[in-house]
Amino acid sequence: MSGVKKSVTYLLIVALFGIIIYQNPFCCTAVYSQETELKYLKQLGMNGIEKGRFAFPHSLAVDNLGNIYVGDTGNKRIQKFSPNGTFLTSWGSEGTGDGEFLGLHDVTVDPEGKFVYTVELKNHRVQKFDPNGTFITKWGFNGTGGRDFMRAPHQIAVNSLGKVYLTDSNANQILKFYDNGTFIGTLGSKGVGPGQFNTPHGIAIDANDNIYVTDMKNYRVQVFDSKDTFVRQWGSLGTGAGQFSETVPGIAIDSNNRVYLVDKINSRVQMFDNTGNYLSSWGSDGKGAQQLHKPEDIAVNDEGVGIYITDTRNSRVQILQVIE
């Protein structure tokens, strides 16, 4: 057999083997298009105290209509924008009273867009509002364990049944509540094993009520099913694809089950499928256009058309989309 024929035969065998791997979900690692990427669209806001401007924007959420809620931590307020970025309303001021904030750390919206929940690290509590900022209820206070005690509340997520999950980083566990604040129980304990945590921070829930948690100092993502049973994990310490820095604060999931993670110290966003296969990344450290400087949180609309990142130290929100 000539050298040319041998080369052609070899290429055909490799191609056929690649097709088999791609089509068989139980064989090896799935193959993904190299064209999948995250593309920059525009930025929202800049440093300032005026409407539509931010001071240390730390968290954000997107509701079922595409409206954007930004936890403007330095200005002690929530700002709400339309899907195209037009300012709609804001609420909040500094303090400990109803509708006031100290250490505003996270904001989320329930799947139906009926309620907005905020988390305050310094006030050790959750507040619940309607989508226009009218205060409804609150719960939580500082303590050392159980029920409403929140040692270091960080991020919050709500499933399709209205159950509320809250990461308590210092307690190394997830607190669970009904949406009226009634305590249900906890998930996890300190450790390195499956279902254990070392500084859990980010949390997100997909359309099937699976729970994704960024286990920061274990450098991984852990996934639990709707019954709080451990399913899988992925990640390690590093700067390569699928690796994380010590700080992975934000996580989001779109309707196509793509998982987006803020890799803060590495100044990037990484995208995975829901089993942990790496798909793409975007970002580099800096203050210029299309750069990130210590980003904190991420949210995404249903189809991944709009991916929103709090570029915290640059006092702006950057907006991306998935290109396939």
Task: Describe the model.
The protein has 324 residues and is mainly beta. It contains 1 helix and 24 strands. The strands form 6 sheets. It has a 4-stranded antiparallel beta sheet with strand order 1-24-23-22, with no helix packed on it. Strand 22 and strand 23 form a beta hairpin. The chain is globular and about 40 Å long. It starts with a helix and ends with a strand. The N terminus is likely disordered.
Helix content: under 10%
Tell me about the biggest sheet?
4 strands, antiparallel
What structural class is derived from the secondary structure elements?
mainly beta
- The general outline is globular
H/E topology pattern = HEEEEEEEEEEEEEEEEEEEEEEEE
Unreliable stretches, pLDDT < 50, 5 or more residues? 1-34
Strand order of the largest sheet: 1-24-23-22
Number of strands: 24
Q: Strand portion, in percent? A: 35-45%
Mean pLDDT: 87
Question: Helical region count?
Answer: 1
Radius of gyration from CA coordinates: 21 Å
Distance between the termini: 40 Å
